[in-house]
Write a structure and sequence with these properties.
The protein is of the alpha+beta class. It is 37% helix and 18% strand.
Length: 456
């Protein structure tokens, strides 16, 4: 059984939305992460804690270095310099500001200092161990780091990391004049009306560095744009806000429990999956099936080669921030969560069962093949394969209507408004590629309104 739901997500839902949602929701049912330096627990200031952002474990920078007795020398938006063992060391690393506190991926500490980073799933502990040649430096038990800003906590288990120069995080490549052979053709269309131009870009929400640099046509069109439009600007979503919203809509308020909405067989299968991952059998009883599905999906292996951080939409969101142009949302975090929440119990159980089945029957080869197939489709700009994938959900009327048809109508209406507005503006719209083709796709909806849509 293929997980038909998961197969579509990289082409229809905002990059990283579910990666952000899963750990935030799971945080209500498990303990926070612990960081140890040479077996000494790091005592973070009240409210400060490691977290997970888009499946990357993030740790407070200054507090952790202080616990390691390593001096921070310089920080920029894409690099960090420290003085370790009397030597200046600089590595490239993306910083994230979480409620005012600087966080970096846990792997950064391995690259900066040579420390080994090991994850203990049972105790949910990140162990930082100094190199053999370096004397162990104790952490002062009663001197907590000085960070005072509250940060969210999370629950998704981080990846085991060891020092590996090939895994160094690098900034997104700059615009290039190279040919499409360096990245991929992808999907881009152009629509003009009333002096306005709208570029329609089909995103794949998980990608890797081989997608970049993009074709010069993308970068040129974006350079001319006055606005960037995306499904949801996930850079504005916090774990705390996500958790609060999911608790509002994803928990039963009528006195019923999860087992009241699932078949006995599916509920038993869920219990086994939870026990196998060191959770209590009834840990998710207060959640609805769609929430349980998103949480247990985090137990499954993922293709490490592809990340939402390299997705096409996030690439342009980051560039829009650099250019200081307005990022407009065609949807919202809430609209996407409410779509999942409004699925019938039957559909929610189908999605949950599909994920549980895949957990019991893991096949990394199939996983890699599916992801590679989607990547190749995007790189070659193959409309035929994109249409086949778009039509693959047509057999489930409820899922297809909510996930594609209704959302396509809403997005097409907003794009129609951009085209009819005055001011001779240029709009660069990046949404999941599966939203564009077919009789219910955005392109056909715009053509029905009288627009001419041209493939670029």
């Amino acid at each position: 059984m293929k997980n038909w739901h998961k197969k579509m997500l990289s082409l229809v839902l905002a990059a990283g939305l579910l990666a952000t949602a899963s750990p935030a929701m799971a945080a209500t049912a498990s303990q926070p992460l612990i960081v140890k330096v040479n077996d000494q627990k790091v005592q973070y200031s009240k409210g400060i804690a490691p977290t997970v952002q888009q499946k990357v474990t993030m740790v407070p920078l200054r507090s952790t270095l202080q616990a390691m007795k390593i001096q921070l020398s310089n920080v920029s938006k894409d690099s960090i310099t420290v003085i370790a063992n009397g030597k200046s060391v600089t590595v490239k690393s993306k910083l994230a500001k979480i409620n005012g506190t600087a966080y970096v991926p846990i792997r950064t500490f391995a690259e900066l200092t040579g420390y080994t980073v090991i994850w203990n799933a049972k105790t949910r502990t990140i162990q930082l161990t100094s190199p053999p040649a370096t004397p162990t430096l104790p952490v002062e038990e009663n001197t907590p780091p000085v960070d005072t800003t509250v940060a969210p906590t999370e629950n998704t288990a981080p990846t085991v990391v060891t020092p590996d120069p090939s895994s160094t995080i690098t900034p997104t490549p700059a615009p290039s004049t190279e040919t499409a052979d360096t990245g991929g053709r992808g999907f881009m269309w152009e629509v003009q009306n009333n002096g306005n131009t709208v570029y329609l870009v089909g995103s794949i929400h998980i990608a890797n560095e081989s997608f970049y640099p993009l074709r010069k046509e993308y970068e040129q069109a974006f350079a001319e744009a006055n606005y960037l439009g995306v499904e949801v600007d996930i850079t504005q979503i916090s774990d705390e806000a996500m958790q609060q919203r999911v608790l509002e809509i994803g928990e039963y308020k009528d006195g019923s429990r999860l087992q009241d909405h699932l078949s006995t067989y599916t509920y038993a299968k869920l219990g086994k999956a939870l026990l196998a991952n060191d959770w209590k059998r009834d840990a998710l009883d207060h959640f609805k099936p769609w929430v349980a599905e998103m949480i247990v999906s985090s137990f499954a292996p993922s293709d490490p080669e592809y990340k939402s951080a390299d997705g096409i939409d996030l690439h342009f969101i980051q560039k829009a921030v650099e250019r200081k142009i307005t990022v407009m949302e065609l949807e919202s975090q809430d609209s996407q969560l409410m779509m999942l929440n409004n699925f019938s119990d039957e559909l929610q159980e189908q999605m949950l069962y599909s994920t549980l089945y895949d957990l019991d029957n893991p096949n990394q080869a199939d996983l890699n093949e599916n992801t590679d197939e989607a990547a190749e489709m995007w790189k070659t700009g193959d409309e035929k394969k994109l249409l086949e994938l778009t039509n693959s959900t047509a057999g489930n009327e409820e899922y297809n209507k909510a996930m594609l048809i209704d959302r396509n109508i809403g997005m097409a209406q907003k794009i129609d408004g951009y085209l009819k507005s005055g001011g001779n503006q240029k709009y660069f719209i990046v949404v999941g590629a599966a939203h564009y083709l077919g009789n219910d796709g955005i392109i056909h909806l715009l053509e029905k309104k009288g627009y001419t849509v041209t493939r670029k």
